[in-house]
Amino acid sequence: MKIAIIGGGVSGLVAAHLLHRTGVHDVTLFERGDQLGGHAHTVEVEDERGASHAVDTGFIVHNDRNYPCFQRLLEQLGVATQPAPMSFGVADAVGDFEYNGASPNGLYAKRAHLVTPWFQRMVADLVRFNREARELLGTSAGEWDPSLREYLAARRYSDAFVERLIVPQASAVWSADPEQLWRFPARFLVEFFDNHGMLGLRDRPQWRTIDGGSRRYVEAIAARLGERRVRVATPVEAVSRHPDRVEVTPRGCAPERFDHVVIAAHADQALRLLSDPRERELELLGAFPYQRNDVVLHTDRGLLPRRRRAWASWNYHLTERATGRPTVTYHLNRLQALRGAGREYLVTLNRADDVRGEHVIERFAYDHPVYTRAGTAAQRRWEELDGVGRTSFCGAYWGWGFHEDGVRSALRACARFGGRL
């Protein structure tokens, strides 16, 4: 079959890889940007001594438990990985409140917290949450399906635990507006935390990062596809479905005929591409709103907590005023083992104005799905769209929103055509 794939992020790349490997399909991958990868984006930086380092600005880490399909893909491609120490911390702008939850030394980075009652209550509430939250896994959505905020209020968790621990953690994981968590499904979060070993201190997954940056797997897939099958800087303007064909129209070009199309774009982008969206497509794809997050790659240590023992792999920022977006800094020296770099390489979300100009390396913007009850319900109805009208849809939004979900959605979309790892 002649198959078009629209979108060169993880889902589109894997779909193209799977279908090409069958040896029976003629695959064309369309990517609107100048390069493949989507959130898998690596930048080459040079430290003070002239040494070069590959740093990631979007997708950074995966683990040995929750990314089995992605790990199988990397093994198949011959892409090496290395350990990535994972830790999470929260800090305000002046050092009055900060912690790194990876160790007692980091948790009590501000020593006064050892004898601060509300801080001790916050820690105790974490232990209670880890124990009580599993109760949601044993109930059906029909019994009680609260938002995260509703659940926390009903269980009378302390304000410190809510505002300075669990909401920052959820906001950082999903790059979500903290205020949006009033509507975030509590069950969705608890299932994710349970799957990732985050409801306890033992038996946690081992996190890893790709040697040489996430570009390595992107380059490996592109090399196997060959230049003829990959068309970057080619935005698609319309997809029209007919009984005997699908017509894909790149910008400024005539329509091109295919037997099937796999749309591996964000849900809202997929809807805009369809010239004749069906009612069910409008309903299900329309259930996934997106939020844009501004990203800065930089070397400004001022975006890290004041106390070095509070530095974490993920550093969430408490702000005086609500920003409507998550504010977090990723410490790449820790996550990507940048030994001897001579400076701190950081990626910060939604605090661009606070990064001193001389420390800015590059700026980006990434869109992330916003999860709601309607969205999680739509995920369970994926099969209602699969293959209808010679069209398949894949993307990380069909799962938790991460790289493994992108791979899994590509596997589902390609299964009918013999695509498998």
From TrEMBL:
Cross-referenced Gene3D superfamilies: FAD/NAD(P)-binding domain
GO MF term list: oxidoreductase activity
One matching Pfam family: Amino_oxidase
Stored InterPro entries: Amino_oxidase, FAD/NAD-bd_sf, Zeta_carotene_desat/Oxidored
Positions of the Amine oxidase domain: 10-416
Alphabetized PANTHER family for the sequence: AMINE OXIDASE DOMAIN-CONTAINING PROTEIN, PROTOPORPHYRINOGEN OXIDASE
Name of this protein: Amine oxidase
